[in-house]
Design brief:
Chains A, B: This is FAD-linked oxidase. The structure is a homodimer. Helix content of chain A is about 35%, strand content about 20%. Chain A is an alpha+beta fold and about 450 residues long. Chain A folds into three domains: about 5-90, 2-Layer Sandwich (Uridine Diphospho-n-acetylenolpyruvylglucosamine Reductase, domain 2), CATH 3.30.43; about 95-215, Uridine Diphospho-n-acetylenolpyruvylglucosamine Reductase, domain 3, CATH 3.30.465.10; about 220-405, 3-Layer(aba) Sandwich (Vanillyl-alcohol Oxidase, Chain A, domain 3), CATH 3.40.462.10. In chain A, strands 12, 13, 14, 15, 16, 17, 18 and 19 form an eight-stranded antiparallel β-sheet that branches. In chain A, strands 5-6-10-8-9 form a five-stranded antiparallel β-sheet. Chain A has a four-stranded mixed β-sheet with strand order 1-2-4-3.
Chain lengths: ~450, ~450
């Protein structure tokens, strides 16, 4: 029996897919600049035991395994290599439990982020991490990349919301980490080690996630426009330094505003160099927004308006959420993802303008400014080899600018394959050696998502 | 040259201590039931390079190294083994930087927690984690054990406040993790792996810590007394389920209340079966406290009073903070540390009463109830071998009761040596194998704080 036939026989009928047309759809995530190989097959598993079976089979035959959620990643972390087995978690969609009293849920890796949000909303709860992809990305992918989003500035990232994990290790055993106690120091923090490990240490099949009570509605919202992008950055720095607690603080600069208006008329000011949309929730929302508005005015905002009207606020949020789609409409795009200390935002925005000017690449920036996390998006005329190469060099310049300001080459998208080279400017040899030692300890044959993540 | 003379020559004069009387003071932490060996010497280092020197020396000669902060641990994590070198970080007390704009500080391991608090208060900031030992324990020890405290219910534990680390690895190299960006997914989360690793993977020499703006004073405070401890537990469960946001929610039951009153008259109700002290900060403090009071009344509180008078609130907090000292005045004591899901507090408190009754051991319980984290304190008549053995069995019963409720054998004190056997009821063989694999990867000769932590 061939190895593939052996695996097919070990899995329920229909689980293993070898049809080349179907398999081709599982080759890559959404990182346009990163190479992707050809998988041998895709295992569309429906339970944890099937993941164990696939992993044990991979060990027997020395086959590389690429775990995959919805494939919405932006760094190539789920890209196939030739001859690999893709293990797709997309069908593990059970919400095993919602424990409303303890504010937690136990969910499988294939649950769509927004589906979890809707399920827990019925209990007056919400799941904070809300990556731009929240309507299409899976919790498993969110966990693998430690996904962020707009609400993280107040409520933390995926790692902060994770109490425990179920993980299939490279040897096919099931590891259970963490638990239901919110304070727990029993042993090493394997939970947070696996979150953000980009599938390199194990395959996350389920998680115990911490939920929060829905804030008392409605939030207070403001929008401010600025005569320059650095002025908007300075406003954010001032808001943070002032100790205000935004529940959302998002930035869009000129190119992004216009891309959104091109895509759908949202009545944003096309002439603004940059705008900030900020929100605060809770009983003191109005007071927090008043502090934020004062910071904007002092930083030189030329127009500020606030609202407690939910419809108006939703419109503003929708405009920000449309940015991703709107920018991809402008042409092939590369969504960068850098972070800087929040006092350095003005400098980073100035550096981006310099890079756009010196490279000639259009850069439209949006970002979770309250966290110092920006998404400078390169808008390309085409995907010809020379254009791609120039885009990669431009993206590298963006990362190096963030590092020069004491920042990071990735705030929430992950290193994947795209950012491996640039990461060496951030992590030194000792740090990389520790990464390799942990990888070797947990996956000595390097079968799990090899050559990515660091 | 003898190995010790060699190390003495490599370190600045006065760094290495071999005087038996002085060395004896570095044998143990404060876990009375845990054995401690006799160190060869103590290196009282003053900088990171000296830690590297000591670690390289230890590798050359195969000597076990026990890192140590202030020795205030309660699980034996810093206890010496015969022939070891104790590396004491107590003299690395520099606050290298306070970055008020970005709300962070870079501090060395030997800084006392409360000293950091006082230093950053001048900038209108605070460092949230506040273990009971905060006036005497070091940041390094707090990091090694992932220490908690009273403010964690709102602001998170030590791990949540850590942005980056400087760590000396077993091979003597310096590892730098994390950074200054609040969102950062560049590589594995080594920062959070080392926090709480109890000195088993490396020696933390410095950390970049996240600070928070001081909340607008004064907080609102309430105290409620209950006719039974489980009723107080039920009130806490209700408070959490209701979505209230306490900045502190502490429990003391009858034995603890009376120990405090014995120690110093604080006008607590000696007849109460249990009391809760709760606090909320921020602009909506009064409203949060009103919700908490309603939950207490519905759970059967027989007396509730609230205050916004800072002096009165300070008195209540001081009473709670005195509990540790007051309980040790009652006789030799063992401060247990378990956690349960917050809906199970009433059951845990009932289980503690049963254990006290069946074992005949006095158990005085205090705890960070809002986190489901209790410190049942065993008060012993003496420390005779039979008493110690009975105390260990009683402590084990406490841990097993927590596990039976879906909890943890340690919420914030760590496993150390004390809880290794009981941990096997919480972590299965696969999880323990992963711990061992990571340990072997980073410390193949098992020289760093061996045989503890898991």
């Amino acid at each position: 029996m061939s190895p593939l036939a052996e695996l097919e026989a070990e899995l329920p009928p229909g689980t293993l897919v070898t049809d080349p047309d179907v398999v081709a759809g599982y080759r890559a995530d959404r990182a346009d600049l990163v190479p992707a190989g050809h998988p041998l097959a895709v295992a569309r598993v429906t339970d944890t035991e099937q993941v164990c079976t696939a992993m044990r089979w991979a060990q027997r035959h020395g086959v590389t395994v690429i775990p995959r959620g919805a494939g919405t990643g932006l760094s190539g972390g789920a890209n196939a290599v030739d001859g690999c087995l893709v293990v797709s978690l997309e069908r593990m969609t059970a919400i095993r439990e919602i424990d409303a009293e303890n504010h937690l849920a136990v969910v499988e890796a294939g649950v769509i982020n927004a589906d979890l949000g809707r399920a827990v909303a019925e209990h007056g709860l919400f799941y904070p991490p809300d990556p731009g992809s929240f309507e299409i990305s899976t919790i498993g992918g969110n966990l693998a990349t430690n996904a962020g989003g707009m609400r993280c500035v107040k409520y933390g990232v995926t790692r902060d919301a994770t109490l425990g994990l179920e993980v299939v290790l490279a040897d096919g055993r099931v590891l259970r980490t963490g638990g239901r106690a919110v304070k727990n120091v029993a042993g090493l923090d394997l939970t947070r080690l696996f979150v953000g490990s980009e599938g390199t240490l194990g395959i996350i099949t389920a998680a115990t996630l911490r939920l929060r009570p829905a804030p008392p509605a409605p939030p207070a919202t403001f929008v401010a426009t600025f005569p320059s992008a650095p002025a908007a950055g300075a406003a954010v720095s001032a808001i943070i330094a002032a100790g205000a607690v935004p529940s959302m603080l998002e930035l869009m600069e000129h190119e992004a505003i216009n891309a959104i208006e091109d895509y759908r008329r949202m009545d944003l000011d096309r002439n603004a160099a940059a705008l900030l949309i900020g929100q605060a929730d809770g009983y003191d929302a109005a007071r927090q927004v008043a502090t934020m508005i004062r910071c904007c005015e002092e930083a030189g905002a030329d127009f500020v308006v606030d609202t407690q009207d939910p419809a108006e606020a939703d419109g503003l949020l929708q405009a920000r959420r449309l940015a991703g789609l709107a920018l991809t409409e402008q042409g092939p795009s590369v969504i960068e993802d850098v972070g800087v200390p929040r006092s350095r935002l003005a400098e980073m925005l100035a550096a981006l303008a310099d890079i756009a000017e010196s490279t000639g690449v259009r850069i439209a920036t949006v970002g979770h400014a309250g966290d110092g996390n920006l998404h400078p998006t390169l808008i390309l005329p085409d995907l010809e080899p020379a254009t791609r190469e120039h885009a990669l060099k431009t993206a590298e310049a963006v990362c190096r600018a963030a590092l020069a300001l004491g920042g990071t080459v990735t705030g929430e998208h992950g290193v994947g394959i795209l950012k491996r080279d640039w990461l060496a400017g951030q992590l030194d040899d000792t740090a990389l050696d520790v990464h390799r030692a942990i990888k070797a300890a947990l996956d000595p044959r390097q079968l799990l998502n090899p050559n990515r993540g660091w």
